[in-house]
Amino acid sequence: MNGHAAPPGAPPGAGPAAASASPPAVRIRGLRKSYRGAPPAVDGLDLEVPAGSCFGLLGPNGAGKTTTIRVLTAASPRDAGVVEVLGIDPAVDPRALKARIGVVPQLDNLDPDFRVRRNLIVYARYFGIPAARARERADELLRFVRMEDRADAATEELSGGLKRRLVIARALLHEPRLLVLDEPTTGLDPQSRRELWERVRELRRRGVTVLLTTHYMEEAEALCDRVAIVDRGRILVEGVPADLVRVHAKREVVEAHGVPEEEMRALAAPGDEVESHGGRTALYAESGEAAYRRVAEAHPRAEAILRRSTLEDVFLRLTGRGLRE
Amino acid sequence: MRGLLGDVGPLAFQVFRRNLDVYLVTWKTACVSLVEPAFNFLAFGLGLGTLTRTVEVGGETVSYEAFVAPGILGMSILFQAFFECLYGAYIRMYYQRTFDAITATPASLDDVVVGECLWGALRGLIGCTASLIVVMAFGHGRTPAVAAVPLLAVSGGLLFGALGLCFTGIVKSIDHINYPLHFVGVPMYLFGGLFFPIEVMPEWARTLAACNPMHYLGAALRACFAGDLGPRVWLTALGLLAASLPILALAVRLMRRRIIK
């Protein structure tokens, strides 16, 4: 554990390769949860997060992502279902579970009255880390999130990206085997986002299981080994991002604006699929070249484009029937 | 450990310690609140005291200044503990999301509530000690019996802190904190026999005062100042301590209902 100076520890050799044999880090069966006087937030959700993987939970606002995260991090009780996180039922032994997982919440909750390094040292006490070890860990983790030169900075004066990195460092103090991040990059600029992705990749390389929620599909594609798309409290699809794209959004997309769905359909070849979302009509095809030419010819002012299908297409196809909420 | 106070363990102490550390970081601004007892004593003791030279209490006639000196202590205990656990805890809970941060660790919400209450009690003790220094500078309470004052400050602080946390668990917004502050906090000290003997009030008000913990705390502080370390002091400390337990247990339940969704 003390072998390498940098970041969080996991037993050596517990990388992704060794993961497939071990039991899943998170196992959820038939999870149900509703808040007083509201329709169920989670309504029969099944989820399995393989140990050592980076797993993305995607879904529109109000789909039940945060509720699921709250239940599995022992922040909320559940109404029904089986939940096991690192083999522990959060409802049975929340303290033991919380000693083994790291949580990065949607909203930063650092101590504004403490300076950067002090935030880590004080937080380490809740995990029973002795003071000397806490100081060591704080310095290791500040190096890990590349904030060693900010150790004495006032927490309140940090930028959004730096605050986020500090929250992540804080979640790693006790060397958790599972790190849960709820929308970790919402509101960050592209540089900060990429820096954060790099930290997440590094953690995964070290064998830490990562479970994150995000609204950014390119983030999920860049980071996650597997993703699940949640809507109305259930999992719609789950799998490797590239596989989901192949199955649900073909290989290529012709996208045009202001072309009615029926007219687009008339230009499609057999096997192609057409759908429109808010003014944008998409034609999904294994090979879109020919369809693209037909659309561009028939609708020269529709600014048609041809591109590779992405996870965002899958997301919109599965969840995107108009605006939410 | 699942008892009266819920799932409380040693981590409650770390919550207390975190608040103490913040206090020590921000001690300069925190010290400003300690100037208050000095102003209170100047206004009530030296100002009002020139109009009302003597007070009859328990069959004895004392100077008003001597009468009000222990009252200043009672007021500090109430205000420091109640305000900290009401306004301070609300800010930590709602604006700083400190409770969320702490409950993401092995600490439970019950640990947080109990830790907050312990911290409120220490704030009561700090305020009381500052007041004691002020009134001692003016020649009051110079008797060995004031050694029992810290005990009263802590037990009173626990009670007022627990009461503050109950309201933190139910107030709708930070603006609504004015209700418990003015309808509970202020009458508790104004009609707690700190500034005038409760005996001068009509019958019904005296009956009401019998339910006011400040009434007992004030009387016990007054006994200490009179050099009387009799059973009144010990029984009051014990009584306040005993009363704070169910109130803290209620605070734990109210806070759970508010936070755990």
Q: What labels would you give this structure?
A:
heterodimer; A: 325 residues; alpha/beta; 12 helices; 13 strands; globular; B: mainly alpha; two-stranded antiparallel ribbon; 70% helix; 5% strand
* Main sheet makeup of chain A: 6 strands, mixed
> Mean pLDDT of chain B, nearest integer?
93
State which percent range the strand residues of chain B make up. Answer: under 5%
Radius of gyration of chain A: 22 Å
The first-to-last residue Cα distance of chain B is: 22 Å
Run of helices and strands of chain B: EEHHHEEHHHHHHHH
Give the neighbour order of strands across the main sheet of chain B. Answer: 1-2
Q: Give, in spatial order, the strands making up the sheet with the most strands of chain A.
A: 5-6-7-3-8-9
The strand count of chain A comes to 13
- Provide a count of the helices of chain B: 11
| Structural class category of chain B | mainly alpha
Strand content of chain A: 15-25%
Biggest interface, chains and residue tallies: A-B, 29 and 23 residues
The total strand number of chain B stands at: 4
Shape of chain B: globular
Integer-rounded radius of gyration of chain B:
18 Å
Main sheet specs of chain B = 2 strands, antiparallel
Low-confidence stretches of chain A: 1-19
Low-confidence stretches of chain B: none
Structural class of chain A: alpha/beta
Order of helices and strands of chain A: HEEEHEHEHHHEHEHEEHEHEEHEH
